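Morning. Coffee machine broken again, so started the prediction first thing and wrote up yesterday's gels while waiting. Chain of 323 residues, entered below exactly as on the submission form.
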Amino acid sequence: MPTSLPEIENLFDLPFNDLLFRAQQVHRQHFDPNAVQVSTLLSVKTGGCSEDCGYCSQSARHKTGVENEKLMDAQEVITLAKAAKAKGASRFCMGAAWRGPKDKDLAGVLAMVKGVKALGMETCATLGMLKPGQAELLSQAGLDYYNHNLDTSRDYYGEVIGTHNYEDRLDTLNKVREAGIKVCCGGIVGMGEERRHRAGLIAELAAMDPAPESVPINMLVRVPGTPLENNSGIDPIEFVRTIAVARISLPRSMVRLSAGRNEMPEPLQALCFLAGANSIFYGDKLLTTPNPETDKDKQLFEKLGIYPLAPDGTGQVLEKKQA
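Came back before lunch.
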């Protein structure tokens, strides 16, 4: 399994067909090649974040038109989780636009986690940087996954974010691991970085012990009002290469095809699944940015013969078509 930066850079340099063939071989060793885990992501606290992340629509430092809203009521979140489950989602992710949660705010999130867990869904939260003791409270409430992305490589991080550093990110991930919560950690591509930076990100993820159970690969959504709104983005084939390299380097992780799918034509998404992506978000919005409608995803799954996985640990699928 390649984990060093030179090894991962060599993967990126493979002929496209060879890279995808190798990614498919690795994928089939560890996963059902036609099953995809489906999650729903809800912004439970939108806008007003104090951080300066250059891609983010919710930063108070950027004029994006996103209003600062208070934390949602736990019962409202649980009701929306029930609806997501009815549409086929097995994991429910709750995101809050904070540098990190204050203890008084965390109490509301804990009620959400407990309520969603009681529905029989996997729970995930992304709340920013955690203080000592907070990860343990989330674990006790039943949180299965904590999302905290590295975003990019160490040497490109300062080009995108200035209000916290790479070690801050790793510190929160360590707290999550120590509390017994699974890690959801990936990055964003198309932020002006070079291939070596994408390789550096994957090398960081592959070097974690254990590796993140869930690895979101986001294509930059260029939000008006953010510093990256006029960024040129990433070539689609290079994006598929990134998915394939992540699959080979992180063979047992769920590789999540995350933000940017609304701008991806169906053939590009199909290539991503072929390259080893096996997790997506259902629903028409990812926090504040557009996402394909659930019916469109179901139609694409039908065309590709893909079916959604049941919650992890069951070893079954929800809707597997008979041969």
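Confidence is low (pLDDT under 50) at residues 312-323. Going to sketch it on the whiteboard this afternoon.
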